[in-house]
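Per your request, structure below.
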């Protein structure tokens, strides 16, 4: 069992992608036996948990980077990097364009996330033609509420394995009209799954893993996963009845509602991530302090 912090990079906001919109993910992790604390930022400025992440005894942090650029302070970013240097596992999930670009502060994990470069005209790369206000990177894998096919890269990574398909591989992810870009840079980064734009047919990376990194003192760092979009895990993308913030304007699809069986298989991916990130788990936290922090 892992002690997991499911954390967003914004303060509580009922009409945004705050942590209440990832409740099904939290439930799935708890059902797999993990101890999950789900929380938003407590305030602007240094957050009392994120800025001391390496001191709380979490094994993993699942960071939903739903901000527009100010989601992590320098002290918080340094604490997350200390957490990894101490063996903690980290998942990051961003979205289109510059959504979640605070992740660039996270060293090698930040380098696995590509964001818009205002000095370069990348308009020809935009897959989502229905929402012209969103610039690169955006990959149109399908409507919210639909599935997208997953193309696994050989050898198949443990994250993509399942006993619930004939192929033994997880074959479908929840889709999103404009996913962000993750890239495998450096010797410890590996792309493990690709998607395909339903608009252009272009392949793009869905997930990158980091494994085998060494801290400056020569000790192994914690494993990490960079996801192309947090919509792989959002309630709305698993169940349209959960609703979305009012600014979501794209018409949803109904594939998941009509055939939830493929979503059940995708949840093996969620469980696989938690198991894989648990490698090198850290010592437990003080229960009283941890409970207080979850309410901050």
């Amino acid at each position: 069992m892992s002690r997991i912090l499911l954390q967003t990079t914004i303060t509580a906001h009922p009409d945004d992608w705050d942590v209440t919109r990832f409740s099904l993910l939290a439930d799935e992790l708890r059902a797999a036996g993990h101890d999950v604390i789900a929380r938003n930022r407590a305030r602007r400025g240094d957050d009392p948990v994120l800025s001391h992440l390496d001191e709380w005894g979490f094994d993993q942090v699942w960071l939903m980077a739903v901000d527009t650029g100010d989601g992590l302070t320098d002290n918080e970013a340094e604490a997350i990097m200390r957490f990894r240097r101490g063996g903690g596992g980290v998942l990051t999930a961003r979205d289109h364009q510059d959504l979640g670009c605070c992740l660039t502060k996270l060293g090698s994990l930040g380098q696995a996330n590509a964001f818009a470069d205002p000095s370069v005209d990348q308009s020809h790369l935009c897959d989502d033609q229905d929402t012209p206000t969103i610039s690169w990177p955006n990959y149109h894998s399908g409507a919210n509420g639909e599935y997208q096919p997953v193309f696994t890269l050989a050898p198949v990574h443990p994250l993509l394995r399942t006993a619930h398909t004939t192929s033994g591989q997880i074959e479908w992810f929840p889709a999103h009209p404009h996913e962000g870009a993750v890239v495998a840079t450096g010797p410890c980064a590996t792309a493990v799954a690709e998607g395909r734009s339903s608009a252009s047919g272009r392949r793009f990376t869905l997930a990158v893993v980091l494994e085998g990194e060494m801290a400056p003192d020569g000790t192994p760092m914690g494993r990490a996963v960079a996801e192309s979009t947090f919509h792989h895990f959002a309630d709305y993308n698993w169940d349209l009845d959960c609703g979305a913030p009012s600014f979501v304007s794209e018409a949803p699809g109904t594939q998941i509602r009509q055939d939830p069986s493929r979503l059940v298989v995708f949840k093996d991916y969620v469980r696989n991530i938690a198991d894989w990130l648990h490698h090198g788990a850290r010592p437990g936290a003080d229960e009283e302090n941890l409970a207080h922090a979850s309410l901050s």
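Residues 261-277 form the longest helix (17 residues).

Regards,
D.
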